[in-house]
Amino acid sequence: MKNRQVAKILYEVADLLELQGVQFKPRAYRRAAQAVESCPTPVEELAREGRLSELPGVGKSIAEKIEEIVATGQLKYHQELKKALPIDLHALTQVEGVGPKTAKLLYEELGVRTLADLEEAARQGKIREIKGLGPKVEEKILRGLEEARRAQRRELLGYALPLARDLCRKLLGSGTVKRVEPAGSLRRGKETVGDLDLLAVSDRPEQAAQAFTSLPGVEEVLAQGPKKSSVRLSGGFQVDLRIVPPESFGAALQYFTGSKAHNIRLRERAVARGWKLNEYGLFDEAGNRLAGEKEEDIYRALDLQFIPPELREDQGEIQVAERGQLPRLVTAEEIRGDLHVHTNWSDGRGDVGELAEAARARGLTYIAVTDHYKFSQAIRGVTADDLLRQLDEIARLNEELKGFRVLSGVEANIQRDGSLDVPAELLRRVEVVIAAVHSHFRLSKRQMTERLVRAVEHELVDILGHPTGRLIGERPPYEADWQEVLHRAAKSGTALEVNANPQRLDLAAPMIREALEVGVRLAIGTDAHAPEHLDFLELGVLTCRRGWAESGQVLNCLSWEEFLAARKRGA
Ligand SMILES: [Zn+2]
Ligand SMILES: [Zn+2]
Known about the structure:
alpha/beta, 4 domains, 24 helices
């Protein structure tokens, strides 16, 4: 059973409990679901090895429930909760504008159980009739339906990227291809990926196709041929392999990387010159190949700067490239530290030293340890006393570590009114203060805006953590006046986080671009709850790149000394 299917049941339990007005438990289930969903290892394997409780947020009771799901494909507890509300709550709440409460209301008023029911009700204009919903909500639901349908068939980038790399490595290892690279939305760093597209060069295409369709994990071969093969992996993910001649590799890479909208613009540019651009190359009127082997040559021949894949969304990149003014996007090599890490002082796995070692092994020179401040039974956080003892531990560790620095910090909770739950004298003692919303997600737009503004204007807050609270395919951003929040953050010098957890990627790319336009600085944080989560850093970098960010706008590109000096309270 797929992690995603297990997570789906846990999410639904959370929503059902929340509808019953149960406190704390929904949050615990949601955290466990997130951990399961973003875990690169199949939960079946963890269950078999008795390692489920290694997942952040998974205690004994939830571990047992996961074991039951893995063993039987379902959960009795879930089935019982569902009796009171027999609807596909998970699918319905993926639609923007439909929270658990709305889903319940729609079931009670209109008998909506599935996405199909929801669509029918919306199309027939029945939703606008319901008291408390109205035409605006109906419109939003119609738009959200399309997006939710698309998202259902997609995988998180954080899952697809390591998978793609693994497939490429194995294919190269088979000795049947000379070169193989992923294209498609994965190459553009998009937060979710539909099918996986691989492009290869081979002088033995038949054998390459054979090697591809016999890769471990292939469940079904949909097509096999010297030009194109398709398989479905055991997780349901479809992977296509195209074998192209070397002189067309660049053109094919360009073509299959997309986006469609970007390619249309590029093709128009070729056509305006009387040329032809397709997956085989760029050709002049007489059919001579002008470019094709290398992607760069295609852009150059069309009088454009090379446009990095992350920018190819038809968001003005072609006009900017024409003027030679593309940003010099931040790169993974420029990142020197991770600004959001949890340890076993709170709900993470691994102690401060282990996290530091893991970061050092990945070429970083510092981390900020920002454990949760205790605020509920559902989450293990640090007390004031713990935090002081942790400061001592960090100071001791920093004496031992050569060429590496652990910054002290805390992830404070932004309370309903925008105040922080950590006393100011403690905030002053630590070096990095992240403030983040972990409760009361559904306030009015005005209340949420005021709450976030109060937090970013707090003199001791360095970073607003996972600012919009969205969970990809799970929870939309909070309702807030984001322009207002961005402006106030820029003005007060508070950085906004680009949380690199695969399910968050929050801020998302479009808002990063808006933030940069008003002068907000970015702080990438993996929000690691285990040493291996430091690998998420590249997802944060990709997201920043999609948001047009340069290294000077990303605090992680500073040394730790420079970072401390750049905080709003200074060194
Ligand atoms: Zn958090
Ligand atoms: Zn965190």
